[in-house]
Amino acid sequence: MKLGRWAILVMFGLLPALPGCGNLSYYAQSVNGHLNLVAAGQPIDRLVDDPKQNLELRNRLGLARDIRQFASDRLALPDNDSYRNYVDTGRDFVTWAVFAAPELSLDVRSWCFPVTGCVPYRGYFSKQAAERFAGDVRRQGFDVHVGGVPAYSTLGLSNDPLLNTMVRYGETYLAGVIFHELSHQRVYVKHDPAFNEAFATAVEQAGTEIWLKRRGATEQMRQYRASHRYNADFLDLIANARKTLTSIYANQRSNAEKRTEKKAAIARLKTNYRHMRDRRWNGYSGYDAWFDAPINNAKLATVSVYNDLVPDFLNLLDACSGDFERFYQAVEDIGRLNMTKRREVLKTARACLV
Known about the structure:
Blueprint: E1 8-9, H1 21-40, E2 42-43, H2 44-48, H3 55-73, E3 85-87, E4 95-102, E5 111-113, E6 117-119, E7 122-124, H4 127-139, E8 142-149, E9 152-153, E10 162-163, H5 164-167, H6 171-186, H7 193-215, H8 218-250, H9 255-280, H10 288-292, H11 297-307, H12 310-319, H13 324-335, H14 339-348
Parallel strand pairs: 1-9, 3-10
Antiparallel strand pairs: 2-3, 4-7, 4-8, 5-6
Helix pairs in contact: 3-6, 6-7, 7-8, 7-11, 7-12, 8-9, 8-11, 12-13
């Protein structure tokens, strides 16, 4: 399982609105990190046509170019210069995201910014800077999770580059991540990361299926759908664990007792995963790395933010007869509602709202 798909939303140009040296320093690293990448970008068309370039890279970039155009032509995603220049970052991830949640709560901590509103992470272009910030938050008593991120979005404020971290995992992943990131440029609702990420994930999933079908990639389609079945089981497992932990945190026992029960619940989660992997999945081990690494409230929150509302968005797309323009308009209309009404309408939508 390739986690770390978080779209780290880098803002710039609003530094005077942010009081405090800490905020200025944080935004400066975001601005500098992004601008350094943009400056290093090389036109994909030129690289694909350059016989001096590595043939495998040229083939990957040619595929990325086709996927990028398909995103605009078929999925009605923005037709701009994002993902038309390529940058090799020289590392495995472009940014690192820091998530935090209280030790005895699943309520993920948020940080608020001028353009994106409140989001459940802080993103850094330096792993060392992310780890330093994570250490500060951990010392405040929070559960903390730091995850590597292969792509990010500036919400259309700048032309985002295609990165080596996006092309390394093969065609299906590449298509999905381009569709996902461009979706953030098409619709974005401030202060509602669960809505935004689930919307982008729904476009990613639907768009990838259409892309693979268009390519006649039968085996890749089979593997992609199998990955969704595994992911559905994984999400059920996490949802059950979150339900158990929510009950533990809400009971009237002492904090010491809650910590003991929390530890036991996470141990059961790992045991339940191993049973599912060995029996239901016949040994498929794609999620081993996720379960082998430490699990805490912050890490569990990363699963919830990206996935809880995805089925509702896919149902709405079906209600719009797969017409992406109508779907985006419907999503924009729902996004104008207050959050409570937004969830209610999204959950109960049985027809395209436009």
